[in-house]
Amino acid sequence: MKKETFQSGIHNFRTDRLTVDNIKDDHFVDVVKNILTPKVTKYLPDGWQNLSYNEDINNWIKDRDSESCFLNLRMSNTIVGFCFLSISETETEKLDVRFGYLLSEGVWDKGLGTEFIRGLVNYCNKLEIINSISGGVERQNSGSIRVLEKTGFVKESEKGNTLFYRKGFKRL
Fold it and tell me: Which UniProt keywords apply (predicted)?
């Protein structure tokens, strides 16, 4: 994959239970509204809190459209979460990928976060243009911290209440 292709924001991969892709369905606003509950958005940035009106959600989606992937539960073809991938260029031709993700409250504690992150790591590792992937997590979000540590991420830094984790890939 070329750098331009990755930057275009078109990503898809599968895990045992998830399909991760950019496809939205006709009821997407309702799906987003149902997923972005106060409990799900508790540790997310302010702009992600209290989205209740369709116009707010449409604007939220539009702002993130080019960097969004959706996590579909393969068994039921139901959107159960989102991930956001953005890139920053390094001094080499390789890219550093930053990600964030969230899962619907109804699928918590079922191993889907770990499965998704493992799938993302495998996807990025296969792309020789990726140098590393990293993400931030609120200090109180112990579930997400466990997922990152379990999947080989290392805490790299802290800023305020946010911990930053990174996983690098060995490239020749």
Answer: Transferase
